[in-house]
Hints:
Blueprint: E1 5-10, E2 18-24, H1 29-32, E3 42-46, E4 61-65, E5 67-72, E6 81-85, E7 92-98, E8 102-103, E9 106-107, E10 112-118, H2 125-133, H3 138-147, E11 149-150
Antiparallel strand pairs: 1-2, 1-10, 2-3, 2-11, 3-4, 4-5, 6-7, 7-10, 8-9
Amino acid sequence: MIVDELYTFEKIGDKKTRIDCTSSTQGYEPFEAMRNKQGDLFFYLGSSNHTKAGRKHKADLAISKTKHISSIYISEVESNLGFGDMRNTEDALLFILYDVKMVNNILQQGARIDVLVAKGQSKNRQNIYTLLEEGELDEQIETLRTRAKKV
């Protein structure tokens, strides 16, 4: 498989930009290590002020939790798909965004983000993103959705 893990995050509380993990395959150690003492996993979604050297453009969004975790690059204006990589790893992240709308820097209720992990594939993230765009990963994603457990 090209994509190894799936984590679904949703805006469920009243925090301005917080997204909480509502289901996951629970197999990605860098994310699992970020769970709090109660076992909750959450990130903050916002505009990106993180620019990598050599990039042609600044990232569209970013996820963080006290520190930058990943930028989210969206190549098409109207697309709900994005890509990035996990900080301090060789892993690629793919993002499927549903109803992600920021109004006055506040993430609106109903937002959902599926984060797909491709372990060891950070150098291939744009190629894997193209596979996602073209529907070539749909079967793998459905397999991961079946494996994912509600949290």
